């Protein structure tokens, strides 16, 4: 099936009902095996064989255009439906001129209004009459019945106004959906289509599709980086805002990772390509955002179910308005037929159906532009209901890179001697604490000792011979097995642990000669992020860590967390998340997406850090913060909450305007043009309200 898979972009797709009908029409093509239509991203995936002409024929009822890739739509004033709308308006104005001069029944007046109806409503009538013959009652069917009915009872003027206003509302809806889809288009335009590569002593410009893994990219100052890769030569500041949302450029040097679509600001770089164009981070972001926009959020599922029953109910109500007053209360048939037609118009579910998807599409697109990848409407809505945020410690609240904070000599050695001996032994170890000690020795220029006879004690430390003396390095448990730990040493050790530091002792079999304090450095933004979460009304902020109780509580206290869970294994974190859900409600788990995968999956919302650098984070989490920091977390929660608020407002606006207009039936005040204004007004309010989610700052 993959061999016969074609992906297309669609123009003119602005209505969810039309999208469903278009998808069904394609499915009925005999040579098509399967089809997926992504309304939010205006993307069509066809499995099987179907020509563009066949696909466009399937969408001819709504003027849908099918293209191999996204291209710019023609200027709005040049589009066919816009031209016919304005011609319809012109004839409507002419009709009203003759209406006031010669009367409503004059042939010229009727002719002008009829021309306006036919020009502006021809495409509408084609679909509406076709649906009517099939007993399919969608928005266009209701409008067709109403306009034909208005003409039959002699309401030519109102029929013309209704046609014009309906065409105008369709244009506004199309415009709004295109604006909402701009996020995908802008993402697609981020990465260059060409790349400059070096082959031997020659450089050449080729299409990014032809670049191979291992090729060397040449990137000059001011150029965009064309592919994901690793810097092999040069150093520069790279603006990664398009991928991670970071406003400050990041320094890149040999060995650092760079991403397609980011901008090289200063120096020249040579980059070895590590991913093909289809596998770059920006390509994955585009794919995941499109999939997210296609997924139906819970509120959208509710609206879609509601609309299924709503349209038949409106038809039945319209029938009752037409027959009950004349049959039982002596009403004029023409008046109540007119009112029934107005009920049909006001009952169009357009605003209700578009109330959720336009908000979801806009919000997910906004988040992607700001370095937050939300993988579906359901996760966007869940994030808006979060009561508790649980954090992994290492690499999330902290930098994940321990540093030496204290060097305390206890014998006749000075700090430089202690770090020289410790670094010599740790040269043979790959433990994170060993790396911290080695980095400290390099900074102090104390790396001139060599160790021999190295032996590791798993989970405790190591020993080796340095300068002819056998030294041990490790945790207090290692030394307590060899010699008594005196009170002063215990006090110093406990004090460091209370400050959130890990204690490493250095000594011989006879005495401890020094204490080294090592701590994972807390991110500078962590405390302010926790404060912002509390300001947003979080019930609890909790840190989950494998550290000992003293270290964990020291860090938790300095950050202002409400609770700390210490000495946890990965499976313990899973248990804690389950208990938090039972006790407090919806829980979000924030981690690095690798060793936290079970907890991320168990939480109501799994949020991974540093999605730009790790495929695991993009795959396991519901939401990925593309930059390796927490600064986007409060923004994401605020965006989710605002989206929920706007969806609720949209549904209320859509229904309230309908109910208000329908109540005008009782005193007989509901006219066709008021009905279409109510429908168009509701759609316009919903669309403009959703567009507020496009703003960067919420």
UniProtKB/TrEMBL annotation:
It catalyses: Cd(2+)(in) + ATP + H2O = Cd(2+)(out) + ADP + phosphate + H(+). SUPFAM superfamilies: Calcium ATPase, transduction domain A, Calcium ATPase, transmembrane domain M, HAD-like, HMA, heavy metal-associated domain. Residues 4-67 form the HMA domain. The chain crosses the membrane at residues 82-100, 107-125, 145-168, 309-330, 336-365, 672-691. It is found in: Cell membrane; Membrane. The keyword Translocase applies. Its EC number is 7.2.2.21. InterPro entries: ATPase_P-typ_cyto_dom_N (IPR023299), ATPase_P-typ_P_site (IPR018303), ATPase_P-typ_TM_dom_sf (IPR023298), ATPase_P-typ_transduc_dom_A_sf (IPR008250), ATPase_P-type_domA (IPR059000), Cation_Transport_ATPase_IB (IPR051014), HAD-like_sf (IPR036412), HAD_sf (IPR023214). PANTHER family: CADMIUM/ZINC-TRANSPORTING ATPASE HMA2-RELATED, CADMIUM_ZINC-TRANSPORTING ATPASE HMA4-RELATED. This is Cd(2+)-exporting ATPase. It comes from Ornithinibacillus massiliensis.
